[in-house]
Specification:
By secondary structure, the chain is of the alpha+beta class. It is built from eight helices and six strands; from the N terminus they run H-H-E-H-H-H-E-E-E-H-E-H-E-H. The strands form two sheets. Strands 1-2-6-5 form a four-stranded antiparallel sheet. A two-stranded antiparallel sheet has the order 3-4. Helix 2 packs across helix 6.
């Protein structure tokens, strides 16, 4: 929660600095790419538990993301409760059935076909953790007065990317899930009206027989995602 006393500008020295050589930068960039290219979206989870503090550290990393006006308009709810996970699954599958029964339209359903998805979401039960990402559309000062948050979707997207990278770096696998609508999560998780759920992230270890869609291993080459102007 912000206090009005925090609103004044004060310049401080840069607290952290990297001073790598060109060769070291290339090596670090390549090493990170090699790490991240091994990230896969997984729907088949083992029953191996994940310790709470691992999840906490990954969410702590997400909280370091840049945000509009530094308002940090996010909240993460991490769930290991078997009961709550099952309630989320039932509610999500209810929305998904409407989606697959015509709500999405033929073009969208056809686009999803190579991924092998359907309305059944057993991973929401099986994954040891679900992390629900909430976007805070407005905040409150310590005196209770409301203030507007800025660039909320962009800020949430960056923080979620940080979170997925942190979870992968910790040796975990993930699945991003976005049933629509998701307002049932506010009531279920006791979150205020100022917050909008944007994503459910299933987190855990892959099952021994975990599979991924063959098409998911295709990534656009650099030539298709990068334009250099020198």
């Amino acid at each position: 929660m912000f206090a009005r006393a925090q609103l004044n500008y004060e310049a401080v020295d840069l607290p952290d600095r990297s001073d790598l050589s060109d060769a070291e930068m290339r090596s670090e960039a390549r090493a990170f790419y090699n790490k991240m290219k091994r990230r896969h979206t997984v729907r088949d989870y083992s029953d191996r538990p994940v310790e709470k503090d691992v999840i906490e550290e990954c969410i702590r990393t997400a909280g370091t993301a840049p945000s509009g006006a530094n308002h940090q308009p996010w909240h993460f709810v991490a769930i290991s409760s078997t009961e709550i996970k099952h309630r989320i699954r039932l509610a999500a599958e209810d929305e998904e059935r409407r989606f697959y029964d015509g709500g999405a339209g033929d073009e969208w359903i056809n686009a999803l076909e190579p991924l092998g998805t359907n309305a059944e979401k057993p991973h929401l039960d099986r994954a040891p953790w679900l992390i629900v990402v909430f976007a805070q559309r407005w905040g409150e000062f310590d005196d209770g007065e409301r203030f507007k948050n800025y660039y909320v979707p962009e800020s949430i997207g960056i923080a979620t990317g940080f979170l997925l990278a942190a979870l992968h770096h910790a040796g975990l696998t993930t699945l991003t899930h976005t049933p629509n609508p998701m307002r049932f999560l506010n009531e279920m998780l006791n979150r205020p009206a100022s917050e909008k759920p944007t994503m459910i992230i299933a987190v855990g270890h892959p099952a021994a027989d975990a599979k991924v869609p063959a098409v998911a291993k295709f990534k656009k080459p650099l030539s298709e995602i990068l334009t250099m102007k020198e």
